[in-house]
Each structure stands twice: as C-alpha cells, then as structure tokens.
Amino acid sequence: MPSQFFGLNIAYTGLLASNAALNTTANNISNVHTEGYSRQQVNQQAANAIRVFQTYGCAGAGVETLSIERIRDDFYDGKYWDNKSFVGQYDMKQYDMKQIETYFDDDGKNAGFQTIFDKFMVTGLGELLKDPDSATAKSQFVGFAGALTEYFNGLAGNVEQLQKDVNQEIKLKVDEINSLAGEIATLNKQINTIELAGSKANELRDRRTVLLDQLSEIIDIEVTETPITDSNNPERETGGTRCLVKVAGGQLLVDASEFRGLECVARKSYEKINQTDIDGLYEIYWEDGQRFNLYNAAMTGSLRGLLEMRDGNNGENFTGQISAIGMTPDGRQDTVSITVTKEYLKDLNKCNLSDQGGIINLGNQEFYYDSWELNCTVDGNGEATYTYTFTLSDHEKNSTRITNDRVGKVATIGAELRYQGVPYYMSQMNEWVRTFSAKFNDILTSGVDSNGNPGTYMFTGKLATDDAQFQFPSGTRFDTGSNFSVNVSDDSYYRLTAKNFGIVTALGLDATLLANRYDAGDGVEQNDLLTDLRVLVTDKNKLDYRGASASEFLQCILSDIALNAAGANSLYQTYKDISNSIDTQRISISGVDEDEEAINLVKYQNAYSLASKMIQTLTEVYDRLILETGV
C-alpha cells in the first residue's frame, strides 16, 4: 500500500502542474503583440496509478506535465504561403505598371504622343499645306518631326531605365532569398539540437514561421517536415525532424541545416535575347553552377512578377523548325536555317531579335550565334516561306559543332512569357516607328523639293558609336509576301528603334530639301505629296498598325497598359483580401486572446491555491500523526 506521505507527493505534482500553467499563461500575455508568436499551452495527463493490493485496486499518483507546446495549424500556414506568393507577384506588377502608365500618359500636363503627333501632322502639316514652298513652314514642320523623334527617344529611355531598375531589384530579391534560406537552415539546426534533448523549441519554430512568411512573398514555397527515426529501430522517433523547403515549383532550397545559395550572373553583350534589352540582365544560377529554372510556369511570388516585367514578351519569342545545317564559305563557322510560321516573325518591323549575337536553343542544345538574316521565297502558287539563317559562333564560344541530327527539331531563343513587359512595349514602339518611318520616307523620296531636286527621306536612326546615320537603301527593303533577303548588319528598318529614332542631318540643317510635290513640272503651290502625307495619318489602308491608323498608336498602347494595370490591381487586391482572411483564421487558432488568457489566469491560480491548501491540510495531518500519536 502507498506510504502515509503519498498524498503530499500527489499535491506536490498538482502544485508543479499549476505553476507550469501559470508561467505559460504569463508568457502568452507577455507576447500578446509579438509578431509571429504562437499561443502555448501545457499538456498534462494523470500519472500512472499505483497498484496497492487493496480491494479498490489502484491509487491515483497525481498529474504529470508532459510538455509545453505551441498551438499551430500547419494547414493554414500552407494556405497562407501559397496565397502570399500571388500577393507578392501582383504587388510588383501593379507598381511597375503604374510607372509605364505614367510614361505613356498624355494628360495635358506633360506632352505625350497625341499632343506631339498632332502638332507634327495636324498643325505643322496644315501650315505647310497652305504654303508648300514656304521655307518657314518647312522648317517648322521639320522641327515638329524632331520633337516626335525626341519623344520616342525619351520614352524608350524611360522604359529602358525601368528594365534596369527591375533587373537590379531581381538581384536584391535573390540576395534576400539567400539570407532567409541561411537563417532558416540555422534555425533548423537549433530546433533539432533542443528537441533531440526532449524539449520543444516553440520560440524558434515561431521565428522560422515568420521567415517562411517572408520567403513565400518573394517566391512560392513548399515546406515539408518529417520525423527523424532511429536507424537501428525505425519505429522509434528520435525527437528530431528534417525540414525541407522547396521553391519555384519543387527546386530544393533548404535541406535541414544546409541550404543552396543562388547567385546572379550578368549576361554578356553577346548573350542578349532581345534587341532592346539593356546590357547586363541577370541570369540566376545555383551556387554549384546549375541553372535555376527561372521561367517555369509553376513559379510565383514577387520574383516572378519582376521577371515578367523585365522579360515579358507577350509570348512572342523566337521559335521555329530547323530545316538545314551548313557552313560559312570559309568553313570555320556553322550555319543553321530555321523555318518560321509565326506571323510576328515574318515581319521585320515586329522583330526584336538581338543584333549583337546571342544564345539559340537548337533541339535542347544551346549554341552561341554571331549574326542572322531573314529570307523570304515565294513559289509559283504565291506561298511564301520565311527562313532565318543563323551564323553560329566559332569554337571559342561553342565547344561543339552542330550536327545534322538537329534537323527537324525545334529552335528557340528566349522564353515564351505571356505577359506584356518591357520587351513587349519596346517592341511595340519600334514597330510603330519603323512602319511609320518607312511609309513616310517612301512618300518623300518619290517626290521633289521646291528646286525640283529628288526628295530626301526624313526619318532615320542614329548609330550608337558615332554621329553617322542609317541610310536605308532600297536594296534592304522588304515587303511581306515578296522575295527578299535582309541581313542583320544591313541598314534595314530593323535597325531603326525608338531609342535611335532621329531626323536626317541634312534635312535638319536645310528644311528646304523637304519634298512637297511629285512632279517637278508642277507649280510651287502644288501639294499633292503633302496631301498623301496627311492621308497617311488616318487611312489604315496606307498604314496599318494593329488594325488601327498611325494616329491611334497611343490608344493601342494605352489599352494594353490599362488592361494590365487594372488586372494587376484587381488581382493584387483579391489575393491580399484572401491573405488577410487566411491570416485571420490562423491567428484565431494560434494567436493570443487576452480574454481567454485572463480566464486561464484565474483558473490556474485557483488550481495552484487548491494544491497549496492540500499541502497545508496534509501538513496538519502529519503534525497530528507524528507529534500527537505515540506511546
């Protein structure tokens, strides 16, 4: 049978349990406003009863305090992380789309496209139509044309700067991922050190959850935690766990106390994807040299939003089928011919391929290329075949030469990102500038000036290296559906961009060189050529830009921007509301409720007082037993 003093031990266990509960309640109250803190509770159970060999069988042995654990629902954490990555993604998009919208906006405060274009083709051309031979009117007209080119130069510069800013922010996000991953790996080690000894690392787990919250906004995460078992006895759990954090659709970032670092490597000038890309755009690699799967569709988070803004091409990347393999005349470099069927690849006005060389994927094998040319051949049935021929770099860049087994396989350059980011808007500006300049110059060069001399073209592009300008000779012109061959190095309108858009120097110095009529035999008052220029502005049959006229460029671009901005704003707000709702749900489980803790305080205080009263009562019993009982 149990000792006469057994009751004192029972009361003592109750005192310990109540004391632990009071201390835990105090800890909860102290951390009521601590970010990420999870409410803790004491887990206790009745101690194993003692067999007393009496008719009543067993005697209760008091209470055991098993552990102090945090209250957390992993289900809501997972839902929160999944949703938070979309919040980060659309937060980046809405911020950057506001900037693009500001650049293109024409609100009357800042002169935008419509204001400048109307001065050029309405005000300036209107004055010239009144007096076609006026040197003053011509000079004013050329001046307005110069303002239009400067507008596109500035606009392209602004959008280019945005790409540069976004690129730098990508690097900051990668650095932040590395920092968070390192902290999470360290916490994993500390948690296992404590829990292998039998305790619960509640505060460290809360800290890890806060870091995972932050990481989930940058990139999508998948977190799994499995118990570590004894290798000699798989049924026995050691108390430690293995925590894995995967990102970007399943790429391992953290494995217990180890993590894989990421690094940004700037592209070289001959590794550009788009003609309009700035130098030094970052590619992301794992620290072991493996390429990070940057463009997989499963990736979300602010990093995804930044990448889509920096590289979004509306799904219009280069893609085609390899049709032939060859060599340059000297036999030192390989060539590859690729047949394309996408409409945007058949029109060089829409082309955004790099003119400085790049990397092309030929049947899942990457090669460097130096240059390319586009050929169009039309058969007897009027069917046109468009073929790009790339000259691959020599052995210094390409360690292996291309083989004939590549024929028939798919060739691609860059990723297909179905978002309208910086490359898309740059490409749209270039398309308008090229199309408008070609049509405008064609009309001018088909007429004569006031002195009867052949008209000179007005719009050209400035070379980046010196003050020279592109000439755009007739031999490099192309028309969709007719035979032509254009090399990337030719002075074709492909070389003209919004950034280098300019006025021919000679016309800028002497506006009287501007043609104003078709026939030299007509009088100086003849303005038939100028009339055709005016028609060019509104007649879609003369100049078709995305099914609209030349003057509707801004409406087309702003409609894209408005849709993207509205979509980003709407989705950001939607996911943010969902995120707040999920966070409210998980806080309702893991958060500290002041009223509930106040009730617990009274409850555990009473339990402590009763346990103390029990000890006092037993003390009186033992006094009577020991001091007043005897011989």
Global structural class: alpha+beta
Low-pLDDT parts are none
Helix content bin: 40-55%
Distance between the termini: 24 Å
Strand content: 15-25%
Characterization of the model:
The chain has 631 residues and is of the alpha+beta class. Strands 11-12-15-14-13-16 form a six-stranded antiparallel β-barrel. The chain has a domain of 108 residues. The two termini are 24 Å apart. It is 43% helix and 19% strand. Helix 2 runs parallel beside helix 6 and helix 7 runs antiparallel to helix 9. The protein has eleven helices and 19 strands. The mean pLDDT is 89.
Quick structural gist:
By secondary structure, the chain is of the alpha+beta class. Helix content is 43%, strand content 19%. Strands 11-12-15-14-13-16 form a six-stranded antiparallel barrel.
Topology of this protein?
Layout (H helix, E strand, L loop, with lengths): L5 H25 L9 E7 L3 E2 L6 E2 L3 E8 L3 H31 L8 H18 L4 H61 L6 H17 L2 E10 L2 E15 L3 E5 L2 E2 L2 E5 L15 E5 L15 H10 L6 E10 L6 E7 L17 E5 L3 E13 L5 E9 L17 E4 L8 H24 L13 E3 L22 E4 L13 E3 L1 H5 L18 H11 L14 H38 L3 H34 L4
Antiparallel strand pairs: 1-4, 2-3, 5-6, 6-7, 7-8, 9-10, 11-12, 11-16, 12-15, 13-14, 13-16, 14-15, 14-18, 17-19
